[in-house]
Structure formats: C-alpha cells, structure tokens
Design goal:
heterodimer, A: 119 residues, mainly alpha, 68% helix, B: 335 residues, alpha+beta, five-stranded antiparallel β-sheet, two-stranded antiparallel ribbon, 12 helices
C-alpha cells in the first residue's frame, strides 16, 4: 500500500495556481495583497518540502572541522567570526567564506530563488 | 471613531485652535504603518475648510519607536529647517480624549507606496530630478545638529556612530534565539573597516522609498520620523540607496533614479561632496539592520503571541539579505 496520489507537492502547486488564476483577479486590492502573500507562502513551503536537507548535516560537519565545536556549531561559528578568527588573511578565511556562501545558497533556494537566477 | 470620541475631539480642537466654530467633517482611516494609525480629518473653522491628518498610536507599539510627542517635536524641527514635511499643527498628550496621545498635521497629496513610486516616470518631473530633490531634503535634515533642547529626548549623540551601530546590532542578535553567522560576518567586516567618526547630525533613520511622498510637482512629504536619532549623515544616504530598498527596480538611488543625481542633489544643498565609500559602508549596514528587524518581526510570529502571515513571510527575507551581505563583503559566488 502507499499514500494516495496526488501527493502534497502536486496539491500545493495546483492549489496555488487556482488561487492565482481563478481567485486573485476577483479580489479587492487589500485582499489581493493577502492572496499574493498566501501564494508566496505556498511556494516557499513547496520548495522547502522538495529540498534535500542533507546540506544541514554537511554544514554542521564543516563547522565542526573549522571550529572544533561539537555542540551548537552555529553559535560557535558566530562567536568565532565575531572574535575575528576568520578575518581576511587568517588560515581558514576562504573555507569559512565558502561555507557561509553555500549555506546562504541553500537557504535562498527556499526563501528567495530569484536572487540565484531561479524562480 | 465613535460619536463620544468625536465630540471630545471636537471640543479639544476648539480649545487648541481657539476657533469656537470649529466643526468636524468626514474622518477616514488612512492606510498606515503597523505602529500608528493615521486618520484623514476634514474640518471647517472660521468659515474655511482644512484638510488635516490625525496621527495616533496603535495598540501594539514598538518599544524602539519614539512617542507621538517626540515625533511632533521632530516634525517641528524639520519644518523649521525647510524640510518638506506635513506642517505639524497641534499635539495632545492627554490620553483622556482618544485613549492615546495624538497630533494633528496638515494633509498633503502624493504617492508614497514603494512599488508605485519606483514605476513613476513623471514624479517630480522625472527620475533624476526626483532623487536630486530627495538628496536636497536629506541635506536639510542633516543641518539639524546637537545639542538641541527641543530634541533632548534623543539623548546624547554616539561618540562613534559606526562602532555604535555594530555594537547595537550585536546586542540585538544576542537577544535572538538563533545565532546568525552571516550577519556576524557582515558586522565583523563593518567593525574592521569602520571609518573615523564625523560630527553628529540628525538621522531620519527610515529615509527610504515607501516613506517619501512624491507628486509630479515635487517631493510633498518626508514621512515616518519615529526612528530618528543622532548619528552619521551617510547612514541615511546608505539606507536610501541600499539594494534591499529598491523595490525590485534597477535604479540605485531608492529604485527611483541614478545614484549620481541623488549625490549631486545632496552635495548642492549640503555644500560638500558625498563620501561614496562611507555610503557603501552604510549600505552593508542597512542590509544587516533590515535583516535584524526582519528576524525580530518573524520572532513575534514564531512566539505565538502575534500570528501573522506578513510577519512570517518577513522572516524569509533574511536569506536574500544574507546573500547580498556576502556579495558586499567580497565573498565569491562559487567555492
């Protein structure tokens, strides 16, 4: 046995289309603003559901290699950056910069794909 | 607004204006901010009609925002410095009239909504004329300098506005649930590259497209003074030019016009050139400040105390601000 189709991603996409194509044109300006926000929220949720979240664990491991932190790696990384441990010219500046860029890319892929030239 | 409040308001206005024949006409709630309520108010007194705005607090007031009496004093100071603001008329600190302090200012006409302003080809006579006029407005604001007894509520100016900014944002991040490595990266860059202090001026602190009312004839109002503080002049220039306040437009000055035209307008009125490197510093600062505000707004939703789709979506602005912060600190796009 398996779950009934269409699955969540397909339902979300179809529901969003119905909202934008059928409902939005009939709404007042104030309601249209809310409808666009709903469509935006649905799109973010759909992208999040589709993303492989492995990068979160990989980032955690990378931060561990950079900072030695096993607990609360983001906090350790934030503190080290604040203290100047990854300033330009420091031993691991380039790796830290690449790690932040990659995490920002994964986060934008969900929240703001247009800055990546997508969506 | 109910009849009892209207009657109290009319009596109060008769006292404030000295016009015993004052009559209240139509009142309509204008679209306003999350913090304040603005009411369009039509009155007749001494035989003539006046178009006013009544500005008062919403129930949920941000702690960081200035009270109405302070905003009124700022409008008075700006009006006296020839900044184009709605003329401030009367202030009421008595909460017995409307339940919260309020003030009355003259009503002005124009377009402020960011997505409309950035599409306006004829506002102020054209894009570059518009940003030059806004540059002149900003230079006039910056002529207001401490100490000022009438603006004593602003406190003492920071000794170093740049380093004070970095410290303030770090304190704000330390109050949040999650650490923010990219914002820390941006703040560390700012700390390392902070220019030396300049003599303090009045910062509007929210001088950006969306808070500036324009018509085809020119700038009609610089609005929303509740975040004003003593600071560094380039902070306002950077906030206005920052990519995050261009509403998707390619024009670098607020999404409205060319950066050079904006700087030229400012320099003509200020009597000295704009320091472009300082503006760049403050544009990075602007992205960090907006990200910290967005995190705070999303936290209000996440706390469960103020469930709101708009606040929830504001949190999702943070990643694209981080992306831009990495661009502005020279981080390459690919590893």
């Amino acid at each position: 046995m398996q779950r009934e189709a269409p699955e969540g991603a397909s339902l979300l996409a179809t529901a969003r289309d119905a909202l934008l194509q059928e409902i939005l044109p009939k709404l007042s300006a104030a309601d249209a603003f809310t409808a666009r926000m709903i469509a935006n929220a649905m799109a973010i949720a759909a992208r999040e559901a589709a993303q492989d979240a492995m990068w979160v664990e990989e980032t955690r491991a990378s931060i561990h290699r950079l900072t030695g932190a096993t607990e609360a790696p983001d906090r350790a990384l934030a503190a080290a950056i604040r203290a100047g441990a990854f300033d330009p010219g420091s031993a691991h500046h380039t790796e830290a910069a690449a790690l932040l860029r990659e995490a920002a890319r994964r986060r934008c892929a969900i929240s703001a794909p247009r800055v990546l030239g997508k969506g | 607004m109910d009849e009892a409040r209207r009657a109290k308001l009319k009596d109060w206005l008769r006292g404030a204006t000295g016009a015993a024949d004052l009559e209240l006409g139509a009142m309509a709630l204008l679209s306003g901010g999350a913090i304040q309520q603005n009411w369009a108010l039509d009155v007749t007194l001494v035989g003539r009609s006046e178009a006013w705005v009544l500005r008062t607090d919403n129930a949920a007031t941000l702690a960081v925002s200035l009270p109405r009496s302070a905003e009124f004093a700022l409008l008075q100071a700006a009006f006296a410095a020839c900044v184009t603001v709605p003329e401030p008329l009367y202030l009421c600190d008595d909460t017995g009239i409307l339940g919260a302090p309020f003030f009355i200012m003259r009503r002005v006409q124009g377009i402020a909504a960011g997505h409309r302003v950035v599409k306006g080809e004829t506002l102020c006579g054209g894009r570059d004329a518009a940003v030059a006029a806004l540059g002149r407005e900003l230079a006039r604001i910056h002529r207001i300098t401490p100490p000022r007894a009438d603006l004593a509520f602003l406190g003492a100016p920071p000794a170093d506005a740049c380093l004070a900014f970095v410290a303030e944002q770090r304190r704000a991040l330390d109050r949040q649930v999650l650490p923010r490595p990219v914002l820390e990266w941006g703040l560390r860059h700012l700390e390392r590259t902070a220019p030396p202090p300049l003599p303090p001026v009045l910062n509007h602190n929210d001088f950006r497209t969306g808070n500036l009312m324009l018509s085809d004839a020119g700038v009609t109002a610089v609005l929303d003074w509740e975040f004003a503080a003593w600071g560094e002049p380039h902070a306002d220039l950077g906030w206005f030019c920052a990519k995050c306040w261009r509403f998707g437009s390619a024009y670098e000055a607020g999404g409205i016009g060319a950066r050079d035209a904006f700087y030229a307008g400012y320099a003509a009125e200020a009597g000295h050139a704009v320091d472009a490197a300082r503006v760049t510093w403050w544009e990075l600062a602007a992205h960090i400040r907006w990200a910290v505000i967005a995190i705070d707004q999303a936290a209000r939703h996440l706390s469960g105390k103020e469930t709101s789709l708009e606040l929830a979506l504001t949190g999702h602005i943070v990643p694209e601000l981080e992306w831009e912060i990495l661009n502005m600190t020279g981080v390459p796009h690919a590893a």
